[in-house]
Each structure stands twice: as C-alpha cells, then as structure tokens.
User: Fold these one by one.
Assistant:
Number 1:
Amino acid sequence: MPVIKVRSSLREYEVHLGTVHDFLRHLASLEHKLFVVDQNVWRCHADGILSALPRSETITFPALEERKTLEGVQEIYEHLLERSAKRNLTLITVGGGILQDVTGFAASTLYRGINWVFIPTTLLAQADSCIGSKTSLNYGRYKNLIGSFYPPSTIWIDPSFLRTLHKLDFYSGLGEVVKLHIMAGEEKTRQYLGSYDSICALDMSTLQRTIRTSLEIKIDYISDDEFDLGRRNMLNYGHCIGHALESVSDFRIPHGQAVVAGMVLANDIAQRRGILSEEKRRFIETRLLLPSLKVKAKPSDLDAMDIIDAISKDKKRIGSGLVLVMLTEAGEMVRANDVEAQEVRAALEEVANLLCEGSRF
Ligand SMILES: NC(=O)c1ccc[n+]([C@@H]2O[C@H](COP(=O)([O-])OP(=O)(O)OC[C@H]3O[C@@H](n4cnc5c(N)ncnc54)[C@H](O)[C@@H]3O)[C@@H](O)[C@H]2O)c1
Ligand SMILES: [Zn+2]
C-alpha cells in the first residue's frame, strides 16, 4: 500500500492510500479517543466503511461554514474533555475540509496539541488540503481569519468515500487537482488528460494514482516553505481572483470551481502581459479548465468593481498593486505584485461569456 512521508517542522507525518478498514479497527481499539465524523459521511457510511467505530466514542458534526468557528471548536473541546481529561487523547476526524479545519484547530490548541488522525472524505481534502498543516476558522464575516499550523500525525486516504460525494463537491475538488497538474508541467498535464474520463467515472485505481500525484506535486511546493513565505505562495494560482469570485457570488461558487475560473482569468492576464502564448492559453482553457467548470457564473458574480474590491481586501495582499500568480510559457509560476485593476477588468470582459456558459453535469 503506498505511503507518502511529509516533512514538517513539528513532526514528520505519513499519508497512506488504500482501504481504511483495518486502520479503523486499530483506531477503534485505542484507549482514549474520539471520532468526529461529518454528518453526511456518517449518514452514508455508518453501516459500511465506518461500521467499526464505537458509537459511544463517535460524535457527528455538520460541514457548515457557520460552524467553522471558535464556538464549533469549543464544542469539540467539551466532547474531548468528557471522554478524558488527559493529554494522551487521540482525535480522529472523518470528513472534508470543514471538519479538517475545525477539528484540526481543536487538536492543535487543546493541551497545546493532542494526537490527531485525519481521514479525508472529499476529493479536495484527499488531493490537496489534507497536507500542508494549515487549519483555519471563520471569524464574523471573515473567512479563514484565525488559524494554526498543525499537521495530523497520520492521514489515511480511501478514495471509496468519494462514491457518495455530491457531484458539485467532486468537481470543486477536481479544480485543485487540475491546478496542481498544470503547475507540474506538460508530462503531468498529459497524464491528467489521459486519465480524465476514468477520474470522472470514479475508477478507484485511477483516483488513487491521481490523488497521489496531486499530493506529491503539492509537497514539492511546500517542503521548503511550510509557513508560506515564498514558493508555497505559487499554490495560489487561480486563488487570487478565485477567492474574490467566491465572496462576490456569496459562496454559491464553491472554492475549487472559483479556482478554475480564477486560472482562466489569470491566464488571460498572463497572455496580455506577453508571458503566455495564445496557443498554450487556449489549450489549457479548452482541454483542462473548462471541462471541469460545472458552475455557471451569473453576470453579477463577475462585476469588475466588486471583484477588484474583493481582491484588494484579500489578506494576502502586500504593496499597492494587485497580487496575481501566473503561469508562464516555460511552465514556470510567477507572482506579480503590480497588477492593475484595468487588467482584471479587461480579463473579466474577455472571458465573461465562457464563465457564464459553464458546462453542466
Ligand atoms: N486547511 C486547509 O489547508 C484548507 C485548504 C483548502 C480548503 N479548506 C477549507 O475546506 C473547506 C471546504 O472543504 P471541502 O471542499 O472538502 O468540503 P466540505 O468539508 O465543505 O464538504 C462538502 C460537502 O460534502 C459532504 N461530504 C463530505 N464527504 C462526503 C462523502 N464522502 N460523501 C458524501 N458527502 C460528503 C459534506 O457534508 C458537505 O456537505 C472550506 O471551509 C475551505 O476553507 C481548508
Ligand atoms: Zn484552494
């Protein structure tokens, strides 16, 4: 069974890929533990993959952004302290990025850090967010404002959870997968294209291989920059404008889908700046990005004033221009700090039709 080791300043941790059945039985035999399971995952898998979980040491938690808060964390503390007031507790999370964030923050702060195991169940969490050590909470109207760096001790990825994932959540995760493959260059891009139909048909071995490749690409970007001070920033490809689209659409456009649209826009700006050819930009757009863009944007989601305003407010912004990560003709990633509002406006005008068309399931 494939195992990936990830280095981190806190500890080295392992990512296992394959059936989680035996590992769950092992976790169920631990003395002091609590399983926190996404409510929908529990509904779909309580009598199947998760049947080994002891009911008295399992709680469910809803995957709602409104619960990814300090209050949500306090709820988790209460449940943990009810079970054992000792440091030797293991918290086991089964769910997607929301459960990862709220429980990861709880695990990182209770007793300044308890043992934490993560079993991701969405494509986004399996192929992207499970590694990288970040936990984030929403605060008031600010998304992901509070957080910590804390990796799980073990991550176990079983792609069979993905069979019950809603299509929209699947394609949101696919947005991050395609981003990572584009960032890794032509060979990985070709590999992704060749696997695309099998990925969408949920072929388990293809999914496992694609998730593994995605994680390896991400590790390459974070291994020397865990705290996001340099190279790791490049993973924000598609995110600079993507985050703005998420908030302007009131989060109707899910994260990974907004990232796909963000890459389309970033590529348009890169072409205008003469660092990406029209040919390469068109190839990426028509073969890689648009096929996985399933959410249609409304014209109001693409209002240039609102988008530029939202980019300007983004917490990652430094300096006076807008910050944008772009792909170059040579396949390298560059980060510009001097993008002008006019460039974003022109890109929005150019691709608005494409983004509003979208392609449904
Ligand atoms: N910490 C990080 O590094 C990081 C990185 C990226 C995103 N995030 C956060 O992750 C969150 C998004 O996470 P996500 O896209 O994984 O989705 P999610 O956790 O919001 O889950 C999406 C939906 O799928 C359901 N679900 C989860 N697994 C399922 C399964 N196997 N079968 C059926 N339903 C299932 C959930 O109940 C929910 O309704 C956001 O809050 C985002 O900010 C965190
Ligand atoms: Zn992302």
Number 2:
Amino acid sequence: MREEGNIDGGRSGDGSTAPGGAPRRAGGSFEIPDFALALILFPETFDRAEADALARRLFPADELCLAPEPEARVVAAETRLKQRLPAVVALSAKDKALQDALRAARTKHAPVAALLLAGAAAPPGVSLFHRLEGAPPRLRRAPLQCDRRDERGPFDIIGDVHGCYDELVALLTELGWRVKAFRKGETLIHAEPPAGRRAIFVGDLVDRGPRNVDALRLAMGMVKDGVAHAVIGNHDHKLMRMLDGANVTRNHGLAETEQELLSCSDQFREKVRQFMSERPDHLWFDGGALIVAHAGLKAHMHGRAGKSVRKFAMFGDITGERDAFGLPVRLDWAEHYRAETAVVYGHTPTLRNHWRNETICVDSGCCFGGRLTAVRWPERELASVPALRRYSEPIKPLDGA
Ligand SMILES: [Mn+2]
C-alpha cells in the first residue's frame, strides 16, 4: 500500500520524493516537515533525561515540550500544533500520553515524525520515522506539500474542466495564454502564459466531457512546464485508483474516460497515474492569503495535512447521507466561513459564481452545458466561456440556471 502523503521532500517534482510525497531517508539525515509533531520515542527502560537531552540538541528551544509529566508535554504540544507551530515531545513507548499525542496530531492535522531510540517501534500509522543508530541524524526541515506561500501569483484559477478541452483552450486564450499547436496523439500540450501569470486547476480534469485525454495532455503539459499547478479532485482521485487497478464503479463519466485512455499507450496511462498521485489536496499561496482546494477547505485545515484534510478538500463537508437526487448531502461550509484567507474552489456546479465570505466557487458546470470559469488572483475578476454543448445531463438542475 502506498504511504499517505503528508510531506513534501522537494520542489522540483524530479522524483526525489517517494509516492505520496513522503521523503526518502538517506544516510544520517532525517527530513521532517516544518509543521509537524516530532516524537522522540524511547523504550520504557531508557533514561528519559537522555532522550530530553537529545531533543534539546536537535531542535530549537521554542519547539520543545519537555515538561516533567508526559501529560503536560502533550498539552503543551497540542497548544502549539493548534497555532500551526511545530512541537517536539519525548515520550516512552509505554507512556499513556503517547496515544493522546497521536490524537492531538490527528485533530490538529499535523504530520507525525518519529525519532526512534534504542529499538523503540514506530507507533501504528506513523510512516515517517528514523531509527537512531549511532550519531543523531542531521535534521532537515521542509515545507508541507501544500505550502506555496512564497508564490505570489498572479494566477488564473480555473474551474472543473471535466474533459472540456475545447472550452479550456478558449478560456486560456481569453485569458491571454497561447496554447501551442495541437498535435494528435498523446504528447503533452504546452501553453505559454501572459507575462508572469500561472494557472491553477481546481481539480476534476476528467469525466463527463468529450476530450479527457486532450484535457489531461494540456494540464499535464502546463504543470510539467512549471506554468500551472493542479490540486486533486474527487474524479481525478478515482481515475488514479482505477489506473492503480482498484475495483471502482465506472459511473459519472468514468467509463468514457476509461475508453479514451484505453486507446493510449501503457506509458501514457502510467504518466496520468503518476501525475494524479503527485497532486496535492490543497495549495496555499501568496504569503498565506490564498487557498485553492477542489471542494474548499475550512480555516482550521489550511496549510495542514492528513487524511481528513484530504477528504474535505476532495469531497467537501459531506455528512454521509444522500439527498433526493441520490447525491451526497453537503453542508455549506462557505456560509459559515469567517477567516481572512481567500478560498477558491470548484466541485459544486453553480452559475452563481461570486465572492461570499472570502470564498468563491469557480465550477460553473461546463460539462453540463454551463460555462468554464476562471478567477484571476489578485484581481479577483472572473473570466468565462460558454460550453460548446451540453455533454452530460446534470443529476439536478444547475443552481442559478
Ligand atoms: Mn468534484
């Protein structure tokens, strides 16, 4: 099974990270996220003072949560994690507080990085760890995969493409991009941005529309060239699982996407699978001012990582129930959103694409005969093109139609 990605080991996408984004461990260095719970774990028989001394040697003083009692360590760590600050605790594998520490990391959406002393075992579910053998490792801190706060834009943030390649080319052209001469086949398609701009795809590149492979060729080409980012959508994720060999239901347009991909080479399908496996669940830009996530993201999940962040970013605030149309019941997280960070998302097709509580949905249901929409950042202006036709019947009428 692939490790759940929670950290970014490199910026270049050059294969220096393991699948899912976890770093490879090499020699005497241990790469951990700059936001994480660092857990120094030792066997019951080990000297606690020695573990604490190692923590002091390896980590900055302000990150240390080394109160006398294990429970107090965890309370201090949780307070830091809540503020998105890294925290370091040293605990015996037998401390009852260990479970509380793991729970605190989970509820604060912080990755756990464990340094294992004297043969201590990694706790269940902790995939990022380093066994201390001999000299302590050289620690390297890396930003989480979502953390692109150093990228300021300007951006063209593009809504759910869903295989609508022609409309994507039209929208990019409208935005001043030049899509390079189209060739049939499966080579990637390149596009040249207007000076300094970058595109961000909100995910759901495939399914329901007529030209899924071409949409993939263009989006993948743009990402490869470094002129676009793309977060993962639920359809992208399901396609990846299908290409992984999982037994997924071929509904909501996936059967047609599969047919298109069956006319491609194994290498291209592998390229698509790899592309999807590298997609972050959300991205955080512009000094922290902008979040892009397929279905949106609540404030306490911004810039964090883990299974529940990923699930929310792909599916939104789902309750597990279904509505009269058989669609998942979704709570309107944006209605209650009160943070200053802008959130741009897609996933819920609507023709009412407007800013609401610093959030905006840019999915205007192109595959359902609506429009393909982008929002420009930092201008906050919308651009859109009409669908050439209705490729798919909406399960319920488009909001605002
Ligand atoms: Mn979606």
